[in-house]
Predict the 3D structure of the following.
Amino acid sequence: AVEDPFGDDDGAGILCRMRALEPRNMFVAVGVPFPEGASVALDAEAGQLVCRNTSENLDLIQIYVESMWERVPSRIQLRAEIYSLPKPLALDLLIEADRETALGDRLRGLARDGTAELVDVLSIATLDGEIAVASSGSELDYVSSYVVQDGKDTAVMNSIFLGSRMEVRAEIEEHGAGLLVDVALEKTFGEPDAAESVVLGPITGKELPVMQVLVDQASIRTKARLLGGETRLLGTLSAAGGDSESSCLVLLKASLKKLGR
């Protein structure tokens, strides 16, 4: 049996290794004949493999190149856009969403004329089946209490994220045209409500500063199926207080691209 020089490759390094090897030697190693006058060359800049051979051998080369390409993993790109707009308009768009084929274009147009505002964009590039996170914002660290450690009053630190954050796990469907996406997205509204106070240190009995922090945060947790290049309405986000005149619509766009392209 002829040994496949790429047989144990997971696909991620195929293109680089193909450029590094002499293409003729690579194909000869897997049993493709090169009679007199036959040739093969790789044009790396153009991304083309130029072959001269018999029709039967050209078919073998095509089959082998396609089999290598199938092992190259696809990079999954996801982009979430969060738009803030008046609640009545958001409700109208939600009603239309099932039949609106260009909701993304509609919202971008509303943002251009000032009716809506693009408040956040979260972009992720990941691989099939992996968990990835994107965020826009910052962590607020604060002291919430004190405990005894090494005979001392020791501060207990807490942290709250302020902003927008998305965690996704995407799987490429068997036929390769679409994605199954499990997504969790959260967004903070307004400024944190921070209250300072003091507690007595468990060792010294002295007054020590602590803080209590409350945030208004909304989240979406859902699963969706998207085709490559498709934009879908993921859901809505609203401040918990209920007195805000605006609401947020979240769009998710997916694309698939082979590594190395």
In short: DSSP finds five helices and ten strands in the chain. The beta strands are 39-43, 48-52, 74-86, 117-127, 131-149, 152-172, 178-200, 207-227, 231-237, 246-258. The first strand starts at residue 39 and ends at 43. Confidence is low (pLDDT under 50) at residues 1-13.
